[in-house]
Automatic annotation (TrEMBL):
InterPro entries: CTU1-like_ATP-bd (IPR056369), CTU1_C (IPR032442), MFS_dom (IPR020846), MFS_sugar_transport-like (IPR005828), MFS_trans_sf (IPR036259), Ncs6/Tuc1/Ctu1 (IPR000541), Rossmann-like_a/b/a_fold (IPR014729), Sugar/inositol_transpt (IPR003663). PROSITE patterns: MFS (PS50850), SUGAR_TRANSPORT_1 (PS00216), UPF0021 (PS01263). Keywords: Cell membrane, Cytoplasm, Glycoprotein, Membrane, RNA-binding, Transferase, Transmembrane, Transmembrane helix, tRNA processing, tRNA-binding. It comes from Aquatica leii. Pathway: tRNA modification; 5-methoxycarbonylmethyl-2-thiouridine-tRNA biosynthesis. Residues 348-776 form the Major facilitator superfamily (MFS) profile domain. It comes from the Eukaryota. PANTHER family: ATPASES OF THE PP SUPERFAMILY-RELATED (PTHR11807), CYTOPLASMIC TRNA 2-THIOLATION PROTEIN 1 (PTHR11807:SF12). This is Cytoplasmic tRNA 2-thiolation protein 1. Its main location: membrane.
Amino acid sequence: MSNCSTNCGKKAVLKRPKTGDVLCKECFFEAFETEVHFTISRAKLFTPGTTVAVAASGGKDSTVLAYVLKVLNERFNYGLKLVLLSIDEGITGYRDDSLDTVKRNRDDYGMPLKILSYKDLYGWTMDEIVAEIGRKNNCTFCGVFRRQALDRGAVLLNVDCLVTGHNADDIAETVLMNILRGDLARLNRCTAIKTDNGDGIPRVKPLKYTYEKEIVMYAYFKQLVYFSTECVFAPNAYRGHARVLLKDMEKIDPSVIMNIIHSGETLKVHEEVVMPTLMKCSRCSYVSSQTVCKACVLLEGLNRGLPKLGIGKSSKAKRMIAEQNNRSVSDENIDYFYQSQMFSGRLSQLIAVVTGSLTALSDGMQYGWSSPALSVLQSPSSPIKFEDWHMVWLENLYMLGGFIGLPLTIYLLDKFGRKTCMLMAAVENLIAWILLGTATSIELLLFARFLAGFGADVNFVATPTYIAEIADKQIRGRLGSIIYIMMLIGILLIYSVGPFVSIAASSAIGASVVIIQLLTFSFMPKSPYYLLVKNNVEGARKSLQVLRPADEVEDELKEIAEVIKKENEERGRPLDLFKVKSYRKAFLIMTVLNVGQHFSGISVMLMNIHMILEDAASIISVSTAAIIFSALMLISCIVSAILIDKAGRKFLLYTSSFLTGISLLILASYFAAKNANVDVSNYNWLPILSVMLYAICFKWGLGLVPIVMTAELYPTNIKALGCAVADAMYIIGGGVSIFLFHALLERYGLEVPFFLFGFCCLFIGVFSIFVIPETKGRSLEEIQQMLKGNSITDTEKIHLLSSTGNGSYNVNYE
């Protein structure tokens, strides 16, 4: 490159996009900073003694703006007090990393930093909002919330001015967008270098005439640290189309950016055009042109579970109610509208879930089958020659069937769909029951157990997926718990009838349950999500017509399509589980919890409860004790499901682990004393007490929390893979624990395996306290931050005082 255009004698290192001049670094810095200073001086943006908040995102614009303001403030003695204000939208993989850059800027530039989050201000993160609304309209929420969040932050910091990093490209894009939309009100003010929305804190744009390319060059040659990743939700933004158009025109004529800005500046609104009148929002006191500001309208839709009504439909809902009632719209009217929409179509969802979960009841019977069947198989009248080692394989082949079935299940789920896989699992379960009821050889019994385990894995992967994809989000958690409650009912059922009837009779009961599912669930709709994945739009529409109110079908179709598109764009790789720090920790936690579930002895207990109680010489009949045991597990699971969002995952987990461990150690101590020929006749009540305490304490936390946390610890792009690996760890843990139990039992007696299981529970309790984060009330972004090792303090709830009006923001932040 030639010499610098300023004749300074140095070699030029760049060509300015704005002017075409070739400059050395030093001259470019001077030209860049002088232009920004000229913009500030000519527009009289600041006065001495002003406190200025820099809207800091960690990107190139805000980083350069903060740096240049610091330089100019010192060079020209502006007399400004500069602070950084950052907004955490709660976008995993984007804002969490950019905030690290902002914190570094704080340290490098010596500016105080204040971070406000959407979660604290509105009770929602953008990850959660996108999960509700889809990716088509998410930028509407983010734009409205971010603008208001910055204003609230400025009020909280008590600053005199808020500066943003909007550059010339941004402003030109905005002019184009407003022209394309025909938005006269915004077109009239979008080129203003200084704006005031009526709250007394103006916004200014010192980089208004600075080209984006020159900002990048300045940051590069100054070696400024900034975050350059695009927002994961931005590709679908309307602004992107205006940006492409602008860049295409810039290639032809770089001056087009300034020309568009000057055109916007010269536009005048005709006097006859009535512009909106600013007022205070009746709910939060934020300045708005409506009685209820846009942020409150959007938030209302989110909190009521119908986010679509926040985009264009909220006013429609109000008009509908007003027309029907011929009166003004009150909150009670709106409540009625929302609730009537909310409960439409849910009966069909409930029927589909209950009929689809009947195989889980059968799986529960299969899970607990070996315990009551043991005494029958070992009796002299048994038609099958049965040896002790056969029991080990009857239990382990159930787990082995699940492990081998896992990779095939994942393939079948995508190949044939959720509903088909659920019906396939039912058929496999039915065949297993027929074989168990008619078997005359140990080989048939072993094959039946393998097939039952295979079908159970297919069912417990396909059914939760099906439920998640057909259920309303407001009842998804409750519907999702039905499958696990069904399984516990199945265990209770086999314990109740197994000891009193033949194997053939109990098998007939299990087969009857499966036949009922095949006869009823066959008529239920398929997953609309799966149908759209297979590009069967009409099939998905017909499915939603059964599962949703008629007026929600088309919007739901669009939402599902957006989710599928996002998942295709952000699908994680298997190696990410080990390369990404937060994923590694999630993998460690889920491995410990899923393996730990079985090493707390649950599979051993469920499959051998009758044998364990017989050896303990229980004070009540073994069959009765087994029924009480399973009933207590069912009750404890239901109570825990109610409390988990109130008491928290971590509390339930470590209290459950410690109490479960104590109950197992008491049981092990009893067996140790008994095998050491100590007289324990006065303590024969102790085993039954320990076992019942175990039933309550295990399902209190260890039996439920890992299921919940599996979906919380992994972000969307890696969730499917993470859940599959967690399922594999669960199955492996079950098989190993069963094998180890029988090996230790044969060599040492019952006390050794139960001592092992007890100490494993205590380890999980300690692990839960020191390693596992509390995810209750946390957004996905916050959970990922905790997994990365970044501390998250409890930010105070923001109840800002308004500078005018009634003096308070009455937004519900809970």
